[in-house]
Amino acid sequence: MARDPGNVKIWKDAHVYVSSLATRPAMPATIDAAITTGWDEVGILNGDDGFAEDRSQSESKHFGWGLGLIKIGSKDFELARKFSPLEDNTITQSIVNPGSTATKFAMPKPVNMWIAFETASDLGDKERLFSILRARLWVPANARNESDITKWEVQCALFADGTGNVFDRQIGTPATP
Fold it and tell me: Is this structure's pTM higher than 0.85?
């Protein structure tokens, strides 16, 4: 039903999980089961940044003589997400400074990892999205200053499989208020 405030959601909590295993770790059997073996949680996220999602495509416009625009062709579809971890831990550092150690700093490069996004709304709705293929994670900037907490913006390029699917999805039924 339209104009129903019950359809308006505020996403009150979120988690990002990654894995660098050769094959994607198993998804939990249900949305209520914990994400465990093979997945590592990135840590505290910046809630104001959320999960920005960028969608893009190339378009070709086709015009009929004397008619104007008659068709638009689309191709080169792209889906990307961004998230901002705040917690400086080993998982975050494996994304921000891949290949670096306690004594050596490697040239930062993108990393390919399995990724899962989990959100929970103020209404009790839950959703999990597990990448079907490894995502390409890249942190284009790293800044430190005296007044703000450290925050990295992780750019996440997502890839479709041969059928056009990007994520496996788990959703839950909201709890009755």
Answer: yes
